[in-house]
Amino acid sequence: MPAFQESILAVLPNTRDDERTVVVLCHRVDSWVELRQQSFGAGVGWFTQSTVKLDPQQVAGLKNALGGAAPHRLPSYLARPETNPRILRFESA
């Protein structure tokens, strides 16, 4: 199986200093975008509370819904539909 790779596209701060959303481009055989809701814990650092996986078609729809004002251009291979959205991980304190 090919190695898993990921690239952080953006870190979106929250109104609280101990919360943020990270936009991550993930690669294996296929590619997808994850939105990760993170919190900061003393002695732990940033950790993921929940993750939403977006397939390429959903990324395109989100970009259109936001007016196409994304600061980064997504690779062309993200323009093809793959799967439905799903929560990959959910962690609760």
| Number of helices, counting only DSSP H or I runs of 4 residues or more | 1
What is the chain-wise order of helices and strands? Answer: EEEEHE
| Integer average pLDDT | 80
Biggest pleated-sheet summary: 5 strands, antiparallel
Distance between the termini: 33 Å
Number of domains: 1
Which overall shape is indicated by the principal axes computed on the Cα atoms? flat
Strand order of the largest sheet: 1-2-3-4-5
Beta-strand residue fraction: over 45%
Evaluate the radius of gyration. Answer: 14 Å
Helix content: 10-25%
Low-confidence stretches: 81-87
* Structural class by sheet pairing and helices: mainly beta
Q: How many β-strand runs?
A: 5
Walk me through this protein's architecture.
The structure is a single chain. The protein has 93 residues and is mainly beta. It has one domain. It contains one helix and five strands; from the N terminus they run ββββαβ. The protein has one helix at 56-65, and strands at 5-13, 19-27, 31-41, 45-54, 86-90. A five-stranded antiparallel beta sheet has the order 1-2-3-4-5. β2 and β3 (31-41) form a beta hairpin.
